[in-house]
């Protein structure tokens, strides 16, 4: 028996327009580009994890840094250490990619991006979503998005390690083009990381009395400036990390072999 | 130079209705609301439309123009091609009273559900002393003209009528954030934002920010900071531990 609910009666009081949207602009373009960009990153990341050409002195590919096992070449190990020892023989990327991956997956900007482009919830503003039911981030698994700040703490560590890798390559004589590519990538990743909404909250966003905490307020204003460009830094760092990683791998494979590469 | 524009306008009552075609004169410098008024004057005297200030400050003339929530008085005709057919419909999330006029009482009901500003018991009116930096963050939210376009575009209730009882909508979650950030407000708002007003339903897709005619950064400055405050309260064991060790107020 069909049950008539109060909701359906209320729904019928709205303008009964059967089309999904009356928008006449190309609203599908942004989610389509986002879908393509994120898919490209996922495909590249999957390939890079299993590619073994991740180190050529003095460069280490960002997707495989830090290298924490004895299976890593000696120059690739972080501070020369191998805390995971002999037992770990899988590619180094598998060990650490969950940290920056988790940071991006739970990031407030990327949530918007993939909710729109992958889950179509909604695909664009004022375009009906295809799902019959919606509970948002109120229950598992999406309630886990609330752990974003822990990934933020871990992402800081990864960002600093990538900066260390870039500086190490830069002080190497002669410093090649790759050093500058790694440095630019590290800078973009740090701008993305420190512009995060959780960082903004931790600096002073959680306070109600900015005037009692002038230093934290100053930090908040600086983070807010980065945060205003969080989307741009999210995309710039996504592509920079792919470009830097690919560059190092191509140098390691000998595909790029010009002087000062 | 004037021209004849093609309009398709929703006509009907209580949800039942249809899109009707009109051809109407448009003159230089006019906005969509001007054209609708000309239609009323010349072809459709019973066409219902809510309006008031014609200056983008009262929030009355919210409607959907070519599928996008817009203020009729702030949408210039010069932004459309002369050959374009312009479709005007009422806000899709609320019940239709007649033609372009909707019943927005859902929003007033949600407003009443939020406890008002609650100062500390020992601070009397006139004794508030606040620095500009302490209040300017929430002043942004007071620019709201209550056009309800953010409420209308939010897919949580636009596409799911059944969520209306559990979700206050971006405008009122922003109101909660405004009060929670107020230096002199002592009411508990974080837990209730999540449990009673449905903050968890928001998946921060930013449509509320996109349609706001006052350009309030609803998502970045109100909803996400409020989500982070809820994380402090409900999901962060480190903050809980810190509050126990340092005896800080959470």
UniProtKB/TrEMBL annotation, chain A:
Keyword Transmembrane appears in the UniProt entry: yes
Sequence intervals crossing the membrane: 27-50, 87-110, 150-171, 177-196, 233-252
Record's keyword terms, sorted: Membrane, Transmembrane, Transmembrane helix
The organism's place on the tree of life at top rank: Bacteria
Protein name: Succinate dehydrogenase
Higher taxonomy: Bacteria, Bacillati, Actinomycetota, Actinomycetes, Streptosporangiales
UniProtKB/TrEMBL annotation, chain B:
Pathway given in the UniProt record: Carbohydrate metabolism; tricarboxylic acid cycle
Recorded coiled-coil stretches: none
GO molecular function, one term: 2 iron, 2 sulfur cluster binding
A GO CC term attached to the entry: plasma membrane
InterPro entries: 2Fe-2S_ferredoxin-like_sf, 2Fe-2S_ferredoxin-type, 2Fe2S_fd_BS, 4Fe4S_Fe-S-bd, Beta-grasp_dom_sf, Helical_ferredxn, SDH/FRD_Iron-Sulfur, Succ_DH/fum_Rdtase_Fe-S
CDD domains from the UniProt entry: fer2 (cd00207)
Domain 2Fe-2S ferredoxin-type: 5-92
Keywords: 2Fe-2S, 4Fe-4S, Iron, Iron-sulfur, Metal-binding, Oxidoreductase
Known cofactor(s): [2Fe-2S] cluster; [3Fe-4S] cluster; [4Fe-4S] cluster
Pfam family, one: Fer4_8
Gene3D superfamilies: 3.10.20.30, Alpha-helical ferredoxin
GO biological process: respiratory electron transport chain; tricarboxylic acid cycle
UniProt cross-references to PANTHER family, sorted A to Z: SUCCINATE DEHYDROGENASE [UBIQUINONE] IRON-SULFUR SUBUNIT, MITOCHONDRIAL, SUCCINATE DEHYDROGENASE IRON-SULFUR PROTEIN
Record-stated family: Belongs to the succinate dehydrogenase/fumarate reductase iron-sulfur protein family.
Family annotation (NCBIfam families): dhsB, PRK12386.1
Name of the protein in its database record: Succinate dehydrogenase/fumarate reductase iron-sulfur subunit
Origin species: Microbispora catharanthi
């Amino acid at each position: 028996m069909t049950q008539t609910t109060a909701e359906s009666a209320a729904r019928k009081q709205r303008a009964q327009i059967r089309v999904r949207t009356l928008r006449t602009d190309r609203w599908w373009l942004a989610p389509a580009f986002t879908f393509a960009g994120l898919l490209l990153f996922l495909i590249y990341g999957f390939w890079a994890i299993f590619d073994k050409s991740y180190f050529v002195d003095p460069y280490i590919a960002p997707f495989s840094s830090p290298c924490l096992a004895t299976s890593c070449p000696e120059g690739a190990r972080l501070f020369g250490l191998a805390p995971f020892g002999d037992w770990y023989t899988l590619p180094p990327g598998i060990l650490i990619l969950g940290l920056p991956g988790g940071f991006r997956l739970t990031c407030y900007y990327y949530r918007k991006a993939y909710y729109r482009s992958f889950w179509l919830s909604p695909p664009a503003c004022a375009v009906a979503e295809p799902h019959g039911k919606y509970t948002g981030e109120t229950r598992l698994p999406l309630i886990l998005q609330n752990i974003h700040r822990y990934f933020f703490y871990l992402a800081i560590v990864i960002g600093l390690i990538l900066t260390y890798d870039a500086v190490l390559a830069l002080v190497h004589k002669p410093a090649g083009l790759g050093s500058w590519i790694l440095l630019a990538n590290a800078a973009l990743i740090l701008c993305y990381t420190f512009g995060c909404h959780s960082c903004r909250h931790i600096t002073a966003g959680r306070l109600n009395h900015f005037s009692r905490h002038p230093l934290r307020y100053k930090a908040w204003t600086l983070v807010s400036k980065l945060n205003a460009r969080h989307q741009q830094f999210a995309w710039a760092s996504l592509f920079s990390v792919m470009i830097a990683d690919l560059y190092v791998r191509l140098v390691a494979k000998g595909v790029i072999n010009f002087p000062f590469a | 130079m004037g021209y004849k524009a093609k309009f398709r306008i929703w006509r009907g009552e209580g949800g039942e209705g249809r899109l009707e075609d009109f051809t109407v004169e448009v003159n230089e410098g006019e906005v969509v609301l001007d054209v609708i008024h000309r239609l009323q004057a010349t072809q459709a005297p019973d066409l219902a439309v809510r309006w008031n200030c014609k200056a983008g400050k009262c929030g009355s003339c919210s409607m959907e123009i070519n599928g996008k929530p817009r203020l009729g008085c702030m949408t210039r005709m010069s932004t459309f091609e002369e050959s374009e057919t312009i479709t005007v419909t009422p806000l899709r999330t609320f019940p239709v009273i007649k033609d372009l006029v909707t019943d927005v009482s859902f929003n007033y009901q949600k407003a009443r559900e939020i406890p008002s500003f609650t100062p500390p018991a020992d601070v009397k009116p006139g004794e508030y002393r606040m620095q500009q930096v302490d209040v300017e963050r929430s002043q942004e939210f007071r620019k709201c003209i209550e056009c309800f376009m953010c409420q209308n575009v939010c897919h949580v209730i636009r596409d799911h009528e059944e969520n209306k009882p559990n979700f206050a909508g971006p405008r009122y979650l922003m109101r909660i954030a405004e009060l929670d950030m107020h230096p002199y407000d002592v009411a508990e708002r974080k837990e209730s934002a999540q449990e009673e007003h449905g903050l968890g339903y928001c998946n921060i897709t930013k449509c509320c920010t996109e349609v706001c005619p006052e350009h309030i950064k609803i998502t970045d400055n109100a909803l996400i900071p409020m989500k982070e405050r809820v994380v402090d309260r409900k999901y962060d064991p480190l903050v809980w531990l810190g509050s126990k060790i340092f005896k800080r107020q959470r």
